[in-house]
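During the second half of the funding period, the structural biology subgroup turned its attention to how the target accommodates small molecules. The most pressing case was adenosine-5'-diphosphate, which had performed well in the primary screen but for which no bound structure existed. We therefore specified the complex as follows and requested a full 3D prediction, including the ligand pose.
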Amino acid sequence: MKHESASPVIRVLDQATVNKIAAGEVVERPASVVKELVENAIDAGARSIRIEVLSSRTDITSVRVTDDGAGMSPADALLAFTPHATSKIAGITDLDTIRTMGFRGEALASIAAVSRVTLITRPNNDDLAAGTRIVIAGGDVIEDVPVGAPGGTSVLVEDLFYNTPARKKFQKTRNTELAHIHDMLEGIFLANPPIAFRLSVNGSELVVTDKSPSSLDTITRIFGTAVVRDLVPVTGSGPLLKITGHISRPSLSRKDHARIFISINGRYVSSPAITNAIKEGYGTLLPKDRFPVAFLSLEIETGLVDVNVHPTKKLVRISREPEITKAVCDAIRNALSSHDLIPDIRSPGPARATVITTDAVLPEHSRPYEYSSIQPGVVSEPTHAGTTATDRQLRQTELAPEPVPAGSLPPLRVIGEFGGIYILATTETGELLVIDQHAAHERILYELAGRKDGKEKRVQELIAPVILHRTPRESAILADLLPALAEEGFHIEEFGRDTFVVRAIPVVLGKLEDTSLLEDIISDLTSAERGQRVDNRERITRIVACRGAIKAGTVCTQEQCQRVADQLRLTKNPFTCPHGRPTMVRFSKVDLDGMFKRS
Ligand code: ADP
Ligand code: MG
């Protein structure tokens, strides 16, 4: 269609509209406002930073960040709100050496475009300098007056998104927004140990960190001593980078990577490549679907890190990434092989200093082990029939010794068992280990079943084939799994409608006393998966290990316990079961002395 008039269709937008649009990129939600303000405080060289958040029942109503950093002169204070006004770079080449969090000069202008901002600031290096108070609402300066103020800066943001209803509507519930603020700040706090931070929500203090040269103090403040006890230090360096930090022993793992904190040159970032490298460094020490807890700080030549790829700078682009990820992976591997990985007995310690997030670090581990029938207080004696059955089970699972990897278990001497669940053992160095017999045997079976030593899986033909009937739904799933099952040593064929015949099973399952074991395995396989997906063979291996292992509640003789302990030493990762739960805890003499107030 032809235009009727000559007036142009394309318009240049006015500055206020431009600012509002730009604000959409930098300030997506309340957490991004907090992030920008805190990063400005860090850039201003603050040593202590206070973050105060107020909320109504439904919304975050205000955010204030107060710092003791450099502060601003009256002229700079006004300029700070001009788009693309920054004191941090002068031109594009400066980006190659940038060390500050900000550099775009967009944040304050963007925030002021979509809220009401009150800035109070005074230069810190000059006792005679005047303080300034500026109020801006929707981008318009409403007040600009001299005031008395302490050195440093405070920025109060209210009525966020009052003039951008669409964005306001996008805000999730108050609790979700608070959780975002909290998670984002955790990353910043961890990346800046020398700064003392305080976060309060509606007047109650949630996280307080001290000025400390060590990130371990900050980790303790945020996650508690229980987590810190399960960490080992990491250091590494190469021509391009320096790595420091802490990572968890395999006994502390999670189903996601939400507790992997990475900072690059002091900036908290998310980097899938480095997260992968960390995971890879654990090798077989962690199940495929488990992630460690890690706090890593990387110092990389600034020219190799491009922070200007994402409006919020959360993602960075790293040049020579393969060399960098390899260095990270090596550092993790070294840390794990040069430290003792047996988990210490966890003292309750102070709780995590937070009430916002519901997902604390520990619940998965502190969840009580499920076991069947133990009666505490009853002195259990192994029965004769039980003993022979257990003997048979254990005989099937002799692991041929492989070269013992560094960092493995010292020789263990079994001194007894407890409740048909726990094996008590001592080490040469006089420590007491409590071993979960089911978890330990599960680990042994898992590694045995998973060994890919080129040979055929050890398979036993059943004297009488077993017939299984399943529901149509289960049959469909089972039919799909048959090839994977065959590779794991189950020879199963379809045998008419919804019926299968089992001709052979893996040797590690021992002698098939009754068919319920098979029924259970098939039920496990056909039931819905929980958590992250792992491939079918991995699932089958885990189920076989779990179902084949000595049950909790089976009382073992001392000799049998010793066998489990000896076999466990030959596994690649004796510290966790295939699901990532610990197989043992340690009580050192010091721990026990402490408990008995002997020290
Ligand atoms: P950027 O951080 O990208 O430079 P901002 O819009 O966040 O852009 O801030 C603009 C400028 O305002 C900064 O470059 C800095 O000079 C000044 N500024 C902002 N916040 C503070 C603060 N808390 N203390 C001192 N100066 C600040
Ligand atoms: Mg900034």
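Two results from this model are relevant to the next phase. Residues 368 and 581 are 11 Å apart (CA to CA). The chain has three domains: 11-213, 224-337, 385-587.
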